[in-house]
Amino acid sequence: MSDVKTGSEIDWEALTRAASEARDQAYAPYSRFRVGAALQCADGRVFTGVNVENASYGLCLCAERSAVAAAVTAGARDFEALVVIAPGSEATSPCGMCRQVLHEFAPELPIQARGAEGGLLVTSAGELLPHAFRAEDLAERRD
């Protein structure tokens, strides 16, 4: 966790630096596709995450979910912004599993997905997963 700022303004440059610095710690010996994420909370705290691969590929953890897990572990639930940075010139958007997890906490979460060499995608959790499965869906369908 790092403190990029306090209050509710989003410093996208600082979040990008935090995600980039975190990316250096990624554990990606199989894909060599190192990803870093920086998640800003409403109280100004920023939690970082990296992808953690495993020889059993299904056990891999994405950077976005790693950052969410760190925030939740610290008691944070009000997410305000996310930057994800991956290799290459094009932005890589969060995978489907990460989209669902991000939507769980903040359907309108602003997201900047960046390529390490400059690509940028500006979006939101809701735009990435417009028909998310929600807690309300569980309540409506219980017998």
Task: Tell the overall outline.
Answer: globular
DSSP helix fraction: 25-40%
**Secondary-structure element pattern, one letter each:** EHEEHEHEEHH
Strand order of the largest sheet: 1-3-2-4-5-6
Give the distance, in angstroms, between the N- and C-terminal Cα atoms.
42 Å
Please identify the top-level CATH class.
Answer: Alpha Beta
Strand content: 15-25%
Structural class assignment: alpha+beta
CATH superfamily: Cytidine Deaminase, domain 2
Largest sheet: 6 strands, mixed
How many E-type strands? 6
CATH topology description: Cytidine Deaminase, domain 2
Total of DSSP H or I helical runs spanning 4+ residues: 5
Q: Please tell me the total number of domains.
A: 1
Question: Regions with pLDDT < 50 over 5+ consecutive residues?
Answer: 1-7
- The CATH architecture can be given as 3-Layer(aba) Sandwich
